[in-house]
User: Fold this.
Amino acid sequence: MNEKTVIDRITETENLTDGLEDEDANWLIDWGISHACMLIQNLEDDETANTKLIELMAVMRRINQITADRNAKPGEALAEDICLLAEDYVRAFGQAQIMSIEVYQNVAAQLPGKSAREVMQSLINWLSPTAG
Assistant:
């Protein structure tokens, strides 16, 4: 899978950035493209590359959803979504993180009131300080 295909797939998948303002949507798309290219750069098999791209797009969808819900969902439900985000991230990037529900609740408690960009950056930095 080449870089153009990756860019096309990410930019044409609207539900990755639903509800985000243009600047924030572009930021998430740029993050996704750069990490997708990194994930697939050494994969020769298009099927494996496609799977990795799908896994990365699941992370992007979950980040978008948490960002949209940060002020509306109760803390426990947001913590559950953050747990699912961590699982999606592990699938995409293979970095295992074993955390307690208290950790997810702590992250969730820090999100309300932040801007969309601050939420996305916080989530990405929390998942992997080197991924932002």
User: Anything to note?
Assistant: The mean pLDDT is 91. The helical segments are 3-12, 22-40, 46-69, 75-93, 101-109, 116-127. Residues 3-127 form one domain. The longest helix spans residues 46-69.
